[in-house]
Amino acid sequence: MAADVSSIEIRSEKVTIVARDGYLLGANRFHAHGQAKGNLLVAGGTGVPQRFYRRFAEYVARRGFNVLTVDYRGTGESKPATLKGFEMSYLDWPEKDLPAAVDLLSQEGLPLYWVGHSFGGHAIGMLPNHDRLTACYSFGSGAGWAGWMPNAEALKIRLFWNVIMPVIVAWKGYMAWSLLGMGDDLPRGVYRDWKRWCKYPHYYFDDPTMPHVHARYAAVKTPCAFVTSRDDPWAPPQSRDAFVKGYVNAPLTLYDIEPAAGKPVIGHMGYFRPEAQPFWDEALNWLQQAALPVGQEATSLAASDN
Questions:
Q1: Architecture of the 12-304 domain
Q2: Which tens digits make up the pLDDT trace of 164-192?
Q3: CA 34/CA 99 separation, integer angstroms
């Protein structure tokens, strides 16, 4: 178990990242307490601003890692004055935005770890530079198909995609789901792509217009862990399993969280709330373990945290 680090103050600063096509992205850098054990990139979920991950980033920095959080184009600190008329593809995030963050962090001579949330677990396979990642750990990444969800959530999501959101997008010109209290607003292009892929049981692996996606994911050989809570309505274990089949050549660890009776619901967002700290420790320990040379004893990890 990691020592109590809650009282350690962490130095952070706003930075600007230049995406691979020149788009400017707002990001925040959190500096490690003591000698850095590695760099860690937080790849957030769709419609989830980087500020949501601040507590997690500060905790990880207290554990001795440099951390970078980023808002993808069209969101948070990286959005234009108005989303109406703003054109982009959902794939711009994993093909242009996140690769620039990987480029930046991989130049510093430290192991580069990835912690993803929802979309952040999808993005690994679409990165042109995933080979620079030392190990990846993702929470709540699923295929997005309503058929994998509990019945009540599936009905809600089908109404969302087929009835409610088309009206809102036609009215506002973008995915204004903040009107429903569901997340930060998103560009029309993200709505268009996301809606299409969520029609398929295996997400874009089943999209006939994207046959190349299989080879991209097959190229990933980085150790990856995919963790989901059994009470996650958007990405329950069966949804996670349907998606990660695409990582056919990556060493995979799949783990299901069993929500504790009497404890707060984890759901799709609880992985990064303060009460989830034990999950954060598990993630960091797993990432460090995955980076060790084959055959090295796990006790070296425990020693490094004491």
A1: 3-Layer(aba) Sandwich (3.40)
A2: 999 999 999 999 999 998 889 999 999 99
A3: 27
